[in-house]
Structure formats: structure tokens, C-alpha cells
Amino acid sequence: MLADALGRPLRLIITAGQVGDVTQAPALLEGQAGDAVLADKAYDSNALRAIIAGMGAEAVIPSNRTRKILIPHDDAAYKQRNRIERCFNRFKHFRRFATRYDRRTVHFSGFVHLAAAMIWLR
């Protein structure tokens, strides 16, 4: 999920449960602009950092502990990453989202868009 600085959802790509989130990050960032991209350790990859640098933004991503040379990040800016977590928590208020009642992706995606519109208007 991609959220703006206020924690409002902008883009969402639904994947299978076993697929890593970093695989969808380039598609989420496509056509976006900003000063920084905040993400957690799961998104620490050289390829994603190159895409973010190509956007002209700063990658505020803590280094994964398996990295040989740790890449520093802005701790003050990283504290703002809680906004995406709050966005997910707003989605979880919808029981249908939290329990994934809809088994078909098209139905689940439709509900997510409806819930996102309701969250955006708050």
C-alpha cells in the first residue's frame, strides 16, 4: 500500500499471502513524486533504493541486519512511518477487510476501494 504524508491510502496492490511486499514497490511508486519514501526493513533492497533515487527522493529505509555495510537513514523522518501503520489500522476497523471474507481478489479489491474512499473522506 502507498499512503500520502497524512496517512491516506493512494495505491494498493493485492498479492498472494506468500509474496513479499518489496516485489510490488516499484509498481506502487511508478509516477509518484515526493521528497522521501519511508518504508520498513522488508523493503531494504538495492534495486528499490535505485528506483527511489531515480525519482529524486530520499530512501528512508533502515538497513536489514543481513546487509554487510549498513546504510544510514534519517531517524527523525522514519518516525513518520507510523502513518502507514495507522492507515492499515483504519482499514482493520472494517471487519470484512480484517478477516478477508471475500475470497476472490476482485471482490476484495472492490471493498478495499470503497473502504479507502471512506477513509479518505474522514
Which key terms come to mind for this protein?
122 residues, mainly alpha, two-stranded antiparallel sheet, two-stranded parallel ribbon, 6 helices, 40% helix, 9% strand
Structural commentary:
It is a single chain. The chain is mainly α. It has one domain. The protein has 6 helices and 4 strands, in the order ββαβαβαααα. The chain starts with a strand and ends with a helix.
Order of helices and strands: EEHEHEHHHH
How many domain units? 1
Helicity, as a percent range = 40-55%
User: What's the β-strand tally?
Assistant: 4
Q: What's the overall geometry?
A: globular
CA radius of gyration is 15 Å
Structural class estimated from helices and strands: mainly alpha
How large a portion of the residues is in β-strands, by DSSP E? 5-15%
Largest sheet, in brief, is: 2 strands, antiparallel
Q: What's the average pLDDT?
A: 87
Going across the major beta sheet, what is the strand order? 1-2
Give the end-to-end Cα distance, rounded to a whole number of Å: 18 Å
Low-pLDDT residue spans: none
Summed up, the helix count is: 6
